Each structure stands twice: as structure tokens, then as C-alpha cells.
Amino acid sequence: MLNTRKMVKKLMLVMIFLIVIPMICATPTYKQNTVLDLKVPCINNGTSCSSSALCNTTIINPEGNLIVNNQEMSRNLSTFNYTLTPTQTFILGQYEFLVTCTDGTDSAASDLTFKITPSGFMENSFFLIVIVILSAGVIILGFRLADPPLVVLGSFGLYFLGIYILFNGILGVKDLITTWAIGLIVLGVAMYISIKSAWELINN
Question: Element (H or E) spanning 167, and its range?
């Protein structure tokens, strides 16, 4: 029992490490088909830009099409903003976001990027792999220890994975055929494992 607890603690630590680190390093990510406010600060020589400063933006979608061509950004104190409509954020993938600012005789440009995903979260392939590995690890551990409750616990990860795929898609794709089929299959596997283990626990 003590060894089991140690292994579960190690699995939890690995999960936290593998999920948190990518979130820290992730590119800004926004939800598909929504109004999107892109904000950038304007700093000149370590202080906010003057009241006469102007910023323009050019935005290119993942297909390489120009959706915003050198348009002026609105200003709120030291932050400049440009709003995209749902029709401009329906393509999934990484967008190029070029901002050019002028403040008197000074000018500067920044080449930024952001991503559009079905859920508004970062690309989930790494996250899904972590969930699969951890769930499979707990389930296998439960089988090896002949511990049905531990197997059922591991199947909860598969339930979560299936529901997540149904609502948010997988690998930047969300549709009613591919991703729904994958999600339903995962839910079916989770249901089979959990019900079978629970049935064996009741019979024993």
C-alpha cells in the first residue's frame, strides 16, 4: 500500500510539471468565432508614449491572407487595441500580428503572433498525451495490484478525455465526424473498463 501511494504521488507530480510548463511558455491563444481584442502597450524610452503617439496594425491569418491592412489602433491610456470580429477569427491556427507605432520622431515595430483554437486554450495535443499516459498508468497499476477501485479511478481520466474531445476537439480540429467519433470511442473504452472493474469488485 505504501508503494502504491508513492507511485500515485509521483504520477501527480509528473502531471503538474508536464501541464504547467507548457502553459507558462505558450503563445497567446483565443477562442474561434469570437470578438477578439488585441492589446499592446506603447512604451517609449521606459515610459508611456505621448498623447500624440499612433499605432497601426497588419494581421495575416494562417492561410496567408491579409485580414487587416495597416489599420489604426484605438487607444486607452498607454495601451493600444484592435478588435477582430468573429468572421475574422474563424480560421484555426497561428496568426501574424504586426504593430508599428510612431511617437514624434521615434518609431518602432513589433512582429507578434497569436493562435486561434476551438476552445480558446493552447494547442491540446501535449495535454491530451499527458492525460492518456497518466490514465493508462493508473489503470495498468490497478490491474497489476488487483485493485479495482484504482482501475476505476484511472478510467475517470479517460472519461474526462472523451468529454474534453467532444467539446473542444483535438489537434486544432473540431467537427461532428472525426473528433466526435474519437471522443465517443474514448468514452466507450472508459465505460467498459470502469463498469467491468466495478462489477468484479461487487462480485468479490
Answer: helix 148-168
